[in-house]
What we know:
The protein is α+β, with helices and mostly antiparallel strands and 114 residues long. The chain has helices at 3-21, 41-51, and strands at residues 25-34, 61-67, 70-72, 79-80, 98-101, 105-113.
Amino acid sequence: MHEGSFARAILLSVRREAQRAGMRRVLKIKVLIGEAHAVVEEFLKTMFDMMKGEYGLGEAALEVEKVELEVKCPACGKIYHPRDPVFICPECGTPGGEILRGNELHLLSIEGEK
């Protein structure tokens, strides 16, 4: 379950950024995660809630914005949204492709009090 690693990375980043900004309380964290990471949001939030106290972020709530996976076929150029871990173009059947969207992992915002 890699959601624990993602939760830990988010918490470390938020703690660092909150300290830089002089925040004494973090209340809300918003992240952007692409489908390519195969993160189960419910597990991520559970892991986040289990660990947040260890990072001094016990009051923080996590909000996740997802980005749909979008792939471009290398043969015919079709842009499609795969539902399987193996990319197969629905137009021509060519395997693989270039990920155009859905590989994001960004900390979008931190809300809190100084």
